[in-house]
Amino acid sequence: MIHPLLEQHIPSRSYVAYLKEIDANFTEFETAAILHHIGLPPMGTLAVYRAFLPDVTDVELRRQITAEIEYMEREQAIFRKGGGDVVFLTVERDEYESLLGVAANYETAYELGVRSGETFKIKKHRLLSEYPEARDTEKYYLNPYFSDDEDLQDCVKTCKMADFGFEIGSASFEKDGSLYHLYSQEMEASQSDKENLKHLYSHKLFTNAYIDYPNPFECGDLVEFVHPNEAKTFGDLGVVNTSQADWAKYSQKVRNGTCYDQSDACITVEWLTEDGHFSHDHNPFIFLERGALRKEMPRPLRELLRAGSEMMRGAGSLEWYGICMENYREWLRREKEHEQKQKENADL
């Protein structure tokens, strides 16, 4: 029987159902490791650790979880601390990272981000003495933030991004202001990070331990990518390219090794990309939802996924797979042309 927190937070509902079907039973240590690697946002991870801690009877595991909680809380507190030669830059969380404003304290920078109504980042910078003009320009440093375009433009002209010195931390937020990701260069490395840097991969730490997950998938199975905190690199639909026999050999090899961690508990999936290619990645089971061909899928997509699945199972033919690939790419081309025409007509 799996812990209720695993049932609640493992992203793949089909994988949770599989674990319950086979009556999987994880130890306290294994449960802690899985909860850690689910990858919830910081506040979600803290909440899960606190909820799980009362159920932990192992003294050493309690110590490790408590240390992780204290580390994460300290990291957030240090990031929010300003003063001295520190400034906070609020930017849009997109590829351009457009500047929304500059603040002397975290609270004002956060308020500015929430008011924007967009996903945003707060970047913490320490000013450099090599840029005296940045030191002398008290305007942007003393004002909480700039609320109108004219002030913002003047700020950017007077103090270019380099003048803000070097970045010592960054926090990403959703539109509602909830913390999405945080990193800080003001914190000492955690115990697990120290061991990772030395390639020690201590299996005594729940943050590094390898868990031999039960594998419900066979080569050729269709899957969808689900993750609480990130988007798929290639696409959302894929075909499994790891057989049960290959997984058994691989997991035995990993268990007998010395340099491995949780990232090794993955199978290979060929993901269908937006431009009509398949590109492989290595993914944990907890992020793989069992997929299926659905009637609402465009026919070229259904046929390509079916052909790819058959190829992985050793059936089908290269000729038919090639035809399906060309048909799918042609359908993509027509769809993009149609979208472009609709956009052009809307602009008229």
Brief summary of the model shown:
The protein is built from 13 helices and ten strands. It has helices spanning 4-9, 13-21, 28-37, 42-52, 59-80, 106-116, 132-136, 138-142, 149-158, 191-197, 244-255, 299-312, 318-347; strands at 86-92, 99-103, 120-126, 166-173, 179-184, 222-225, 237-240, 267-272, 278-283, 288-290.
Binned strand content? 15-25%
What is the rounded Rg?
Answer: 25 Å
Low-pLDDT segments: 129-163
* Overall residue-averaged pLDDT value: 82
The shape is flat
The major pleated sheet works out as: 5 strands, antiparallel
Q: State the total count of DSSP E strands.
A: 10
Adjacency order of strands in the biggest sheet: 2-1-3-4-5
Order of helices and strands: HHHHHEEHEHHHEEHEEHEEEHH
Distance between the termini: 61 Å
Instruction: Bin the helical content.
Output: 40-55%
Keywords:
5-stranded antiparallel beta sheet; 10 strands; 348 residues; 13 helices; alpha+beta
Mind sketching the topology for me?
Elements: H1 4-9, H2 13-21, H3 28-37, H4 42-52, H5 59-80, E1 86-92, E2 99-103, H6 106-116, E3 120-126, H7 132-136, H8 138-142, H9 149-158, E4 166-173, E5 179-184, H10 191-197, E6 222-225, E7 237-240, H11 244-255, E8 267-272, E9 278-283, E10 288-290, H12 299-312, H13 318-347
Please give a structural write-up.
With 348 residues, this protein is α+β, with helices and mostly antiparallel strands. It has a domain at 80-184. It contains 13 helices and 10 strands. It has helices spanning 4-9, 13-21, 28-37, 42-52, 59-80, 106-116, 132-136, 138-142, 149-158, 191-197, 244-255, 299-312, 318-347, and strands at residues 86-92, 99-103, 120-126, 166-173, 179-184, 222-225, 237-240, 267-272, 278-283, 288-290. The strands form 2 sheets. A 5-stranded antiparallel β-sheet has the order 2-1-3-4-5. It has a 5-stranded antiparallel β-sheet with strand order 9-8-7-6-10. The chain is flat, with a radius of gyration of 25 Å.
